[in-house]
Specification:
single chain, 3-methyladenine DNA Glycosylase, Chain A, 12% helix, alpha+beta, DNA-binding, 225 residues
DNA sequence: AGGAAGATCCGCT
DNA sequence: GCGGATCTTCCTG
């Protein structure tokens, strides 16, 4: 990767995927490590790529906010129990898809939700899919938005992210901002787990979906590697 | 067979 | 800030 996106154009589609080792770690570790990595999707319509700037960790079966809470194992959650490096996509609110990375080890239903991405390539295609201008920040600053922009949906359920050429993560540029932690968003139903700071995002990145809500809970800063 | 809820987004006030 | 959109999945009876 170039040091900045102002360098020569990168052939994102040809980048080597992150290997299974990346995903085969505790979910909080992967959620933190995913910040700054690249998400790439190659489709018939074109190539979309971006830097991951916001994630959340879901640690079933004990995590009440996780779909795999209590060991729940259904058609929908089945892939969460699969090999680390698989993609878990699900459909919510009758209209939105969400992308997760399966982590840890087979049988451990833990996953990282990708909540926001900073677009680097395929902006025109993303804009077309989203019905927005390519310069619009709403292109990819939310979990449902980025899936629509990248053209991700049911067909990608269970896809192996370690395979090259289609849908995968790749090593991001070295330079990154601080990473902050805060409580996860939209899990008011998860009594006892609401306040866990399992959301990670780059400080001062305009593509992050929202600033940490509670000005009271000081988002704790984490060293960037 | 039916109902309820949902890891969201958008537009309006 | 609030409510509506919209439909799949899962649980209950």
């Amino acid at each position: 990767m170039p040091r900045s996106s102002a360098d020569l154009p990168v052939d994102f589609a040809a980048l080597p995927p992150l290997e299974r080792d990346f995903y085969a770690r505790p979910v909080l570790t992967v959620a933190r490590a995913a910040i700054g990595q690249l998400l790439v999707h190659v489709s018939a319509e074109g190539v979309c790529a971006g830097r991951i700037v916001e994630t959340e960790a879901y640690r079933g079966p004990e995590d009440r906010a996780a779909h795999s809470y209590g060991g729940r194992r259904t058609t929908r959650t089945e892939v969460m129990y699969g090999a680390p490096g698989l993609a878990y996509l699900y459909f919510v609110y009758g209209m939105h898809w969400q992308l997760n990375l399966v982590t840890t080890r087979e049988g451990a239903p833990e996953a990282v939700l990708i909540r926001a991405v900073e677009p680097l390539a395929g902006l025109e295609l993303m804009a077309e899919r989203r019905g927005l201008a390519p310069s619009d920040r709403r292109l990819t600053n939310g979990p449902g938005k980025l899936c629509q922009a990248f053209g991700l949906q049911r067909a990608h359920y269970g896809h192996d992210l370690t395979l090259p050429g289609t849908l995968f993560l790749a090593a991001g540029p070295r330079r990154r901002g601080r990473v902050l932690r805060s409580p996860r968003i939209g899990i008011d139903y998860a009594e006892g787990w609401i306040d866990k700071p399992w959301r990670f995002h780059e400080a001062d990145n305009p593509w992050v979906s929202r600033r940490p809500s509670g000005s009271n809970d000081p988002a704790r800063s984490v060293r960037s590697s």
